[in-house]
Amino acid sequence: MKIGIVCYPTFGGSGVLATELGIGLANKGHEIHFITYKRPARLTKYYQGIFLHEVNSLEYPLFEYPPYDSSLASKIVDVVQHEQLDVLHVHYAIPHATVAYLAKSILETKGIKLPVVTTLHGTDITLIGLDESMASVVEFSINKSDGVTAVSQSLKAQTESSFDIKKNINVIYNFIDPERFKRQTSKAFKTAIAPNGEKIIIHTSNFRKVKRVEDVINSFYKIRQEIPAKLLLIGDGPERRTMEKLCRRNGTCNDIRFLGKQEVVEEILSLGDLFMLPSAKESFGLSALEAMACELPVISSNIGGLPEINEDGVTGYLCPVGDVSMMVERSLRLLQDEQLLDLFRKNARTKALEFTIDNILPQYEQLYLKCIENVNKPKTLETRI
Ligand code: GMT
User: Fold this and answer.
1) Ligand 1 in reach of 20 Cβ (< 6 A)
2) Site to substitute for ligand 1 among 14, 17, 120, 153, most atoms within 8 A of C-beta
3) Is the pLDDT of residue 380 over 80?
């Protein structure tokens, strides 16, 4: 198939997932066309079968905000027409599902049918999607997509309870490539970070408020009072400065490293003993799944889709949002018991293997085929996908 993919090209989970999906599909022989405002962060090399179409916003003195949506819609129309795409897959509803509907409508006037699949990722539903300034547009655009997917049962349920959804939402979980995300041994690197064999705790996020990075730092402060430990923070974002100040206030700077945005996260994850994800909202938690694949047990909050990947007492522990005392107690329970830690490490990898690219990719391929078939059927024969 010739598949167009629209996504945010950043290190955020939806962009990462969309990029890995595109790479996986290209490896299976599909032709992939990314339509984004810059090269996706995880697209780090040349892949045969992957094409990149950059969207340029138009600057004009009249525009305080350049109309990106219009530029993206025009680019989609152009790419679909000239590359003869079979299907368009948009990641993150805002504004991509809306723009896809606009492009589809324009193409219809030219006699071209464009099946559109929308993947809901998280805050496009649970945070900004619910804002009054967005809600009616989000609901309309989801209902206008030919196929809709959500990355967890929890996100599907939340979408259905928050909006009037007329479409079937297919749950297709996020995935990992188990060959890439597996524990690697790098003694030298580990010794550099933890020269005295300290336990290494890792957190990855885009440092937005919703991630509650302060809970990681405050938990670490207490954990470190009990055992020698180091904390590695991967990623960057609006809360970083506040978090740096918090480390200074706690007097833990020497044991915490802010690593910023990283491309080869699996190498860093492989150094860790424990992963923390205390988010206030998390529709899936791709970063936790990547950590689990590298044999890191996870201490996470018990919200959203996290319980669907992190099994309490098996692959890690689930704690109520903001319950730092419990996060500390559960972390120490694992970090102070080598045997238990070892068991949880193995369990984490085993659980992660339920979400491999080989299991998940065919689910997207089937959905694309169904949407293509449906869109090309006479109106009266269309089926609910
Ligand atoms: O919704 C977001 O916060 C943005 C999105 C992203 O681009 O980072 O993250 C969401 O999508 C990821 C991939 O499906 C999920 O793993 C994250 O759980 C989800 N984030 C939230 O729900 C907060």
Assistant:
1) no
2) 14
3) no
